[in-house]
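Researcher: I'm comparing several assemblies side by side, and this is the next one on my list. It has 968 residues spread over three chains. Same procedure as the others: predict the full complex and return the structure.
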Amino acid sequence: MKPLLELRHIRIELPTRRGTLLAVDDVSFTIGEGEVLGVVGESGAGKSITAAAIIGLLEPPLRLTGGEILLEGARIDNLPPEAFRRIRGKQIGAIFQDPLTSLNPLYTIGRQLVETIRTHLPLTDKQAAARAIELLQEVGIPGASERFNAYPHQFSGGMRQRVVIALALAANPRLIVADEPTTALDVSTQAQIIGLLKRLCREHGTAVMLVTHDMGVIAETADRVAVMYAGRVAEIGPVRQVVKQPQHPYTVGLMGSIPSIGEDLERLPQIDGAMPRLGSTPRGCAFNPRCPKVMERCRVDRPDLLPAGATEAACWLHAPEVVHG
Amino acid sequence: MAVDVKQAVARPGLVRRLWDTDLAYSFRNSPVAVVSAIVTLVLILGALFAPWVAPHDPFDLSSLSLTDAGDPPQWIDGGSPDFPLGTDEQGRDILSAILFGSRISLGVGLFSTLFALALGVTAGLIAGWRGGVTDAFIMRIADVQLSFPSILVALLIDGIVRSSLSHDQQDKIAMFVLIGSIGLSGWVQFARLVRGSTLVERNKEYVQAARVIGVHPIRIVVTHVLPNVLTPVLVVATIYFAFAIITEATLSFLGVGVPPTEPSLGTLIQVGNGYLFSGEWWITVFPAVTLAALVLSVNLLGDWVRDALNPRLQ
Amino acid sequence: MIVFLLRRLLQSLAVMLAVALIAFTLFRFVGDPINGMVGQDATQAEREALRQSLGLNDSVIVQFARFVGRTAHGEFGLSYQLARPVNQIILEKMPATLELSLVAGCIALVVGLALGVFTGLRPRAVASRILLAASLVGVSLPTFLIGILLILVFAVWLRWLPSYGRGTTEQFGWWTTGLLSIDGWRSLIMPAFTLALYPMTLIIRLVRAEMLEVLRTDYIKFARARGLTNRAVNFGHALKNTLVPVITITGVQVGSIIAFAVITETVFQWPGMGLMFIQAVSYADIPVMSAYLVLVALFFVIISLVVDLLYYLVDPRLRMQRGGGGHGR
């Protein structure tokens, strides 16, 4: 089955006064139709930048300097800006972190919805308005027809994020890239929004790339998960496997540091050290200075994603020789 | 990696350290900043050392001779190297007049800036520290004044003083009146800035602790609030310096600035204005170019300082 | 909304009263009004009589009240220098200044906004960089210098435009206009441009800076992510959000044109209120000075009110009593 979205060896650079830094280094993964892929990692691991590249909104001076992005088998990374614009919203939608700043404070949400709808679908004002109200009802805004003429600042945080979701789904895209959609919300609202997103995407058959640093959300929502570290993919696989039986020492550390109710711990286990900053990535495997299972090879050669049971991990522990010998 | 202990321990000299700071780095790499700094420096030095650098003394009436009057600059027919930039209708050397004029312009600019700064910072500190009615009162005055362009305010003050005094008295204190009026028209910006910072610092815990202990408020204000405000005040001061120079030039041009016995660049320009049509353009143009160069380079330098000190752009 | 309006009106009234107080103080206490009006040979008795008839012996409060009353009716007394009623002088000169200020204001607004938006949308274009450098020059150079420069180039060297006066004017009742003749326009161009330059460059820099900031916001990013056309994003969203905070400062700048006219009118010998004011200052003609002060203050206050009203109408967040979320950044 052909994947909906495919990233092949993506490389994103950041030229600075003191030299060129590598923000995303040879990242590859796929997202199938209707699938929810979680992308997890610490701040600075390159998740948001990858997401930005997929929707074609990489902010200069960041540049995509290598690899390909394919949507339904066709390359989109090399499209001229106007052609990419037509894809945005129609085929690929996006949701960002802060719902307050995502909406233009000077326009009513109705107007913003109608504008988006009419950009992609050949509807009249009236038809678009009707569809907008439908969307608002779908995302669970009470009194949708009255709220149509309200301004963003008249909504609460959770309601605003619902409006944002409505806007993203307005033209029925095949894929939604969600960059930390719940981080700015309180815990109970988070659960609601995640539930809404999950339900809607299932109903419309929309795939989701869910970028977050919150493993709990991933565990609840995603089908597969990719763990990113220092601009690379450390591990990728079905969510159950990655969470229950992580194969990459970094993932192991991540899972171990999540406390669970009922556990009796004196200290949260930590991974020693910190993720390397851009430009100071160590040679070989990026994780080697902190890895409890480090080998000589790790300091020299960078591992590709190797099959490790039900998942894939970029770790020499799973090199065929090591596994069998 | 082997480390030379002695090298690591010995501190590089002060100059070396200053040279390596971020500020110095961005300065070195910005041709605009360097050029404008050089221009400003040259003009300031020229003005400062005018009595020694100028080839003639434009104020010594006895040295003027009408045979020299109306000479063009030396590269045009009729000019002479004695008067490199030409002479005016009274035989005064333009170059010397410019040097001395710059002195006045810079002097008035500097002192009025300092005055505005002193007044504004004090007012801001008081308003911010005392709060309540004092604060409201000072800020109301500031608001009303702010709704008028400063040139009007300066003109007004100048006009009032003028009408209260006789002509002789006027000339004697005209300089002070000028500095005072320009300064008075500009204190507001400093006051607002400082008031804001003072309010912020006042509510901090260490300040409240100091008050409880009984440290004198003036001491608290001077040792704690003042240092925090210095950078933004400096930025505003550089902006205001250029503005003060322009205001003085404008007022002198309009005839209500410096007394005619001590012409500034503005006065020179005004005098020369009358001779434009008779073809003696140099009487106006050279002072004008000097003024423009001065203000432009001060502004550019100020722009660069602002950008360099702006934490958001780092 | 009514509450807002009332509050602003009261504020404006307070400002006008403050200005009236200053004008009154000028009038009453600076110099001796009697001296200004009466010859040197007048006897003490005559001066005393004049004093009494002018009501100068009444209490200060009464005098102030009378002053306010008269001013509100447009009576500003007699000019010391010209011995004519001040309001007559003002009526003569006002059209010149108003026309000049209006044209200059339009130039500053239209050109300033257009160029500001352009340099904001394309900050890296060569034209933008040149404009930005030029605008720095525009902000740095004193107005009178620019005027002189223009006169030098266009009147002295090229002889295309006249260097002083209004040219041919036509009279309509008490209004004189120079806008109806080519000659009038030829005289108007240089002073109008000179007057417009400073506010225009300020507007360019302001609009550009604001536009750049707005283009970096999340809602613009989200608008792009929704696939809205460049036009919709730049002009529908970015422009509107740029203009709103810019209204206040722009309005004040355009309003201050009338005050800066003082300089321009002097350079170009434009027979307006500004020139009148300068002459009044050098002759210590208090009645004219204080009349000008009151008029300019009134003008400012009106502009400030209009601007505040505009702002209120345009930004929906201000219309709610309890403002909701903060600025969308």
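Model: For your comparison table: Chain A has a mean pLDDT of 86.
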